[in-house]
From TrEMBL:
Entries under InterPro entries matching the protein: Helicase_ATP-bd, Helicase_C-like, P-loop_NTPase, SNF2-like_sf, SNF2/RAD54-like_C, SNF2_N
Keyword Metal-binding in annotation: no
Stated name of the protein: Helicase
Superkingdom of the organism of origin: Bacteria
Molecular-function annotations in GO: ATP binding; helicase activity; hydrolase activity
Residue ranges of domain Helicase ATP-binding in the record: 728-884
Keyword Secreted: no
Domain Helicase C-terminal: 1006-1168
Compositionally skewed regions (Basic residues) per UniProt: 308-318
Length: 1176
């Protein structure tokens, strides 16, 4: 069982049972009846480095079989790389229900089967034997793998017959605007090539679904279209999106036809619809104009070509041009340059206006037409279907059967559908716009351009006029806070401003003399804009779109306005909507704040207001303003009040103490002292009797210094007496805390002092690691004989819980409390003590959850390392010991954890330290225990031999190849992290001894030789040592070597029974054994081993606090000799990288508990980088 830590083998049944139970509980109860009808076949088991996988075959009542994979893997402790916590289980199934809900009856039936099998095994030996019997035959599995692979390859694509005729796919389109359910259909037809290669057959209809299911498509484009058309349509929008997208893909396809009996080819293309105004000449007498050239029998080339185009157009519709347009003669729309040249060259040929009779004068009018890519669209001949490519991408289909053409017109704005439908309803062949009407439309073209683009002829666009370039900043206050800022080109003759540098270069507008076209200098606009952006820091705001930014906070908005104000005339003009701007109304100070405090059993409620200009501003608005680092708080429409700088700091501290719940501000009782100090004497308070009583009680406790309790038979050192008094004050106050003294400073005796003081009023429950349970009983007997200490083991457990009363002290292990949580939660306890409280640093574990169900009048945590890796550990501790002080995890994370760990926010770090400082008492040995002998720490480095180095480097390169392949998709982050930690464990083991990874290794190791030479020196000097290793296998290798040399030792790991542990500890303390070999996790806490004066760490652990705890087994009260600590490290290996991390871990503890710096926890990529590092 290499996939689980050796220390946990003894708990394998319990851990696996819990993992599968959680999996069963995660299923919906609606699956129960269906799962009960399923048959589960005995699975095969595959074991890997990261866990085990069960492969089930689950059979339904119709003999339909589903494959279910159930994996059980160790849960990685994110803050303790390489450590193993609970086991987790995951299921996979290929059925539709699982794909939708991530659970199904098949996975539930498989989980039930495994749960029953685990329950039927008595003891871990039977369970391990049972699991071994499920292991798959590797050779048989290989045969099955090849058979399945070849079967799938054979069936993936049917082999073509030797005489098979070439085929191709044709897509046929039907547009029927009268159909409500299927206005557009796209159907595939299979065509065969005729004999001799002379064309193709008409084809037979096939189903898109069949083409996909039988894997018959070779063209990726056809595959995509088939996927989109395989879903049946029901006339709803979601169906139309797919069919419209399929039509878009057919644009340019070489084989598309109408879906009718003729199946004529049809051209599909996708473009934008344009509204164009075509100029036509109309004689005032409603007769065609007669020009001089016509009178002379000459024909203008320009008009001739125009008439030709118009005649052909009339022919298609079955009418002549005169019938279509009446007495209208259209002119060809030509480029402006060509028109100018023509008008100049033909001036002499035209009859002067004054010589032309009034009834023969010509007026230019304009005909509206719809076009796509220069093709005129006759809407009367088109079938139209409205739909879209997506909810925000509307589109319209125009199908012209006469022209064998289908146009998919995409629209930029859903609002355009209405105007497009209006345009498609009309017949504009008899519609003319006179010059005034056409000018109105021309001037509005810019307004409706987002709905439909309007193309204007030169006659309407007007002359070209250079445009001045004035850049302005348009500002609009945001609804919540801050400003929206837009940099724009301003022109007084335009209704809307323009984006600098964005087309068009010619902008139509209306001047006093009529329509004109403004000529912009886009390059100059961009250059001027860039200067403004850089000068005033617009690029430091949140970018929203082209030349638009958002000042997210009022503070950021005021900073920008201040920079613009300071620049004076060098700043661009600011334009506010309706001439409005920010107005600041006075300053908010503590004297203007009125606070009302009410009370409930567990909280104090708090409300408050300040009044500015007759407007009441709630306290919550002030707290939100300082939380978002805003100097201003809104007091009305575009009116603000400034919070004074000194008051901002006090509001921030007040916010740290308050928790918002259901819109109400609540203050935990533990936070009363800090809240009182923050509010001070200059804030008006309206309080209750409960508040005054709490304040009086705090004032009385400040000067209360109780003597050593009479029931404690121990001579306390000064710092221990101070510790007892601190505990007594917390106890009297009723608020939980953490005694965080260094290991070896006597946390147990200080705690016994407060337990004997509280003993007469009720029973105490002590939760402690298994290894120290008996030590609690002995210490209680020795120092507090008035207390009756009992181990929750080998007794009537229901009775011992039920009858616990005054002066009773019940000691239970974390594991047993988790198992029997309901028993312990069935009654109230006067005192709850958590020894080695870091056991609940992960709030999500079952252990933490179980402890939170215990009812206790007062709670105390004991831990030399309350904060090891990240701030979530501290939050988890206080969630149990002093609920409400730090609020919810979401609040704590946003208010403290993320600013401190990600951004190294010193102010937030100090605020958190100030908040928890009254409830954490931490003393270090170097500060309070001057008489303790010194401790020396030495690192000894072992150089790997050539074979060891090759083995190590091969593994390192293999790790990098596996971990860097595929780019590390976020969806695989959890599995990638487990793989990373697995490789790191291998590299650490190779650094110790190759046989830990390669069983075939027959030689020794450089580190083992270094260790044995050190042991020889220690024995010669009559020294005794504790030897720690994370790996039980490593200790096994060491034991073999020591046995060969005849060196005596004691041994302890996670499998050692608790009573045997104490016997071996006592034996070592009494002189039996030169060495004590100890598994780091099993014996790193709770043991007193002062008979040793040397400590040897065979392999460095990620967290130095764990090593320090182990070292403190020897360096503690009672030690009379100097203690030397040796760390054995393999040179140029991962172990040197781990040592480098130790300094960062120690800074985290100091940062919060002592107020210095902090470090964030390692991410997966950080761990991979450790492997990448060149070891030299």
């Amino acid at each position: 069982m290499d996939w689980i830590a050796e220390d946990q083998l003894g708990s394998l049944g319990l851990l696996m049972g819990e993992a599968v139970e959680r999996l069963v509980d995660s299923h919906d109860q609606g699956f129960d009846s269906r799962a009960a009808m399923l048959t589960v076949k005995t699975p095969t088991l595959t074991q890997g480095d990261n866990g085990v996988r069960f492969d089930f075959q689950v059979v339904g009542n119709r003999e339909k079989q589903q494959t279910v994979a159930l994996e059980i893997v160790p849960q990685v402790d994110e803050d303790d790389p390489g450590g193993v916590g609970e086991l987790t289980s995951e299921c996979q199934c290929g059925c539709v229900a699982f794909l939708r809900d991530q659970s199904c009856p098949h996975t539930l039936a498989a989980a039930w089967w495994l749960q029953e099998q685990i329950a039927r095994r008595n003891g871990n030996g039977q369970l391990i034997e049972f699991l071994g019997g499920l292991k798959a035959d590797a050779v048989a599995a290989g045969k099955q793998f090849v058979d399945e692979l070849l079967r799938r390859a054979k069936n993936s694509r049917p082999a073509p017959a030797e005489d098979a005729e070439p085929t191709r796919l044709q897509w046929r389109v039907r547009v029927n605007m009268a159909s409500q359910t299927a206005p557009l259909t796209i159907t595939p037809f299979e065509q065969k090539q005729r004999k001799g290669g002379k064309g193709w057959t008409k084809g037979r209809e096939v189903r898109s679904f069949d083409l996909l299911d039988q894997n018959l498509l070779t063209d990726p484009l056809d595959s995509k279209i088939a996927s989109l058309t395989s879903v049946p349509t029901h006339g709803v929008h979601d169906d139309n999106y797919a069919i419209f997208e399929a039509l878009r893909m057919l644009a340019g396809h070489e084989n598309v036809a109408w879906d009718d009996q003729n199946a004529l080819p049809v051209e599909v293309f996708c473009s934008q619809l344009l509204l164009t105004l075509q100029p036509v000449e109309v004689e005032q007498s409603n007769k065609p104009k007669k020009s001089k050239s016509q009178t002379d029998g000459k024909t203008s080339e320009k008009k001739a070509s125009t008439k030709t185009a118009r005649k052909s157009s009339g022919k298609r519709s079955g009418k002549s041009a005169d019938e279509l347009l009446g007495n209208v003669t259209a002119t060809m729309t030509m480029p402006e340059s060509e028109l100018d040249s023509i008008s100049v060259s033909s001036t002499d040929d035209l009859i002067p206006d004054e010589l032309i009779p009034d009834d023969e004068k010509v007026e230019v009018q304009f005909q509206p037409r719809l076009s796509v890519d220069g093709i005129d669209i006759d809407v009367q001949k088109c079938e139209t279907v409205v739909g879209g490519l997506s909810p925000v991408e509307p589109a319209i289909i125009l199908a012209d059967a006469d022209e064998d053409r289908i146009v998919l017109c995409t629209l930029a704005d859903p609002a355009a559908i209405g105007i497009i439908q209006f345009l498609l309803r009309g017949d504009y062949r008899d519609t003319l716009l006179d010059h005034a009407t056409a000018s109105r439309l021309a001037l509005a073209a810019g307004t409706i351009d987002s709905l439909i683009r309007v193309e204007l002829p030169p006659q309407l666009a007007g002359p070209i006029v250079p445009a001045p370039c004035e850049l302005v900043l348009q500002m609009r206050p945001r609804p919540g806070a801050g400003l929206k800022v837009s940099l724009r080109v301003y022109e007084s003759r335009l209704r809307d401003s323009l984006v600098p540098g964005d087309a068009p270069e010619l902008v139509p507008c209306l001047a006093e003399t009529g329509p004109i076209r403004l000529q912009r200098d886009l390059k100059a606009e961009l250059e001027s804009s860039e200067k403004i952006v850089q000068q005033f820091g617009l690029n430091r705001l949140s970018h929203e779109s082209t030349m638009e930014w958002v000042a997210l906070t009022d503070h950021a908005a005021l900073d920008l306005l201040g920079r613009l104000h300071d620049a004076g005339d060098d700043a661009p003009r600011i334009v506010w909507p309706e001439g409005e701007t920010f107005r600041v109304r006075g300053e908010i100070t503590p004297k203007s704040l009125r606070i009302k405090i009410d009370d409930s059993p567990d909280w104090f409620g708090m409300t408050g207001t300040v009044t500015v200009d007759g407007v009441d501003v709630p306290l919550q608005d002030l707290l939100m303003a300082v939380r978002e680092d805003r100097q201003l708080v809104r007091v009305g429409d575009r009116r603000f009040a400034k919070i004074s700088e000194a008051f901002r700091k006090r509001l921030t501290q007040l916010g740290d103490t308050l928790v918002s719940e259901k819109g109400q501000l609540r203050l935990a009782g533990a936070a009363v002292p800090l809240a009182r100090d923050v509010l001070g004497d200059d804030v008006t308070l309206e309080t209750t009797a409960a508040w005054h009583q709490a304040i009086e009680r705090l004032d009385s406790l400040q000067d209360w210094s109780p003597d050593r309790p009479e029931g404690l038979d121990a001579n306390l050192r000064d710092y221990q007496l101070d510790g007892y008094r601190w505990l007594a004050r917390l106890s009297r106050w009723g608020v939980g805390g953490v005694l965080a003294d260094d290991m070896g400073l006597g946390k147990t005796v200080q705690t016994l002092g407060i337990l004997v003081e509280r003993g007469p009023t009720g029973p105490a429950l002590v939760v402690a690691p298994t290894s120290v349970g008996e030590n609690w009983v002995r210490e209680a007997e020795k120092f507090t004989p008035a207390l009756t200490g009992k181990l929750y083991r080998d007794c009537d457990r229901d009775e011992v819980i039920k009858t616990a009363g005054p002066n009773d002290l019940l000691i239970v292990s974390y594991q047993l409390l988790q198992r029997d949580a309901k028993r312990f939660a069935s009654r109230a306890w006067h005192t709850l003590v958590l020894d080695e409280a870091q056991f609940i640093k992960n709030s999500q574990t079952k252990t933490s959850q179980a402890i939170r169900t215990i009812q206790a009048d007062w709670r105390l945590g004991l831990s030399g390392t309350p904060l090891e890796n990240h701030l979530g550990e501290l939050w988890s501790l206080f969630r149990t010991l002093s609920p409400g002080l730090l609020g919810s995890w979401q609040r704590f994370r946003s208010r403290f954890a993320e600013p401190i760990e990600r951004h190294s926010d010193a102010d937030r770090r100090e605020s958190l330290a100030r908040l928890v400082r009254p409830f954490v008492l931490r003393r270090t040995k170097d500060k309070v225990l001057k008489e303790l002998p010194p401790r020396t720490e030495i690192t000894l480095r072992a150089e790997l031999s050539a074979p060891e180095r090759k083995l190590y480097e091969d593994a390192r390169l293999a790790a990098l190849a596996e971990l860097t392949a595929g780019g590390g998709a976020p969806s695989h982050e959890g599995r990638r992290r487990i793989q990373t930690l697995s490789w790191l464990t291998r590299l650490r083991q190779l650094s110790c001894h190759p046989s830990l990874v390669e069983p075939s290794w027959k030689g020794t190791s450089s580190k083992l030789q270094l260790f044995l030479s050190l042991v020889e020196e220690l024995r010669e000097g009559d020294h005794r040592a504790l030897v720690f290793s994370q790996f039980v296998k490593h200790l096994s290798v060491v034991r073999t070597a020591l046995d060969e040399l005849g060196v005596s030792y004691q041994y302890l790991d996670g499998a050692t029974p608790s009573h045997e542990r104490q016997r071996r500890v006592d034996a070592f303390q009494n002189g039996e054994g030169d060495l004590f070999l100890i598994s780091l996790k099993a014996g790193g806490t709770g043991l007193n081993l002062t008979a040793a004066d040397y400590v040897l760490h065979l392999d460095p652990w990620w967290n130095p606090a764990v090593e320090d705890q182990a070292t403190d087994r020897a360096h503690r009260i009672g030690q009379e000799r100097a203690v030397t600590v040796y760390r054995l490290v393999a040179e140029r290996t991962i172990e040197e990288q781990i040592l480098q991390l130790h300094a960062d871990k120690r800074e985290l503890v100091a940062g919060i508990l002592d107020g210095t710096d902090a470090a964030a926890k390692l991410q997966t990529q950080d761990l991979i980088d450790l492997i990448k590092a060149e070891m030299g």
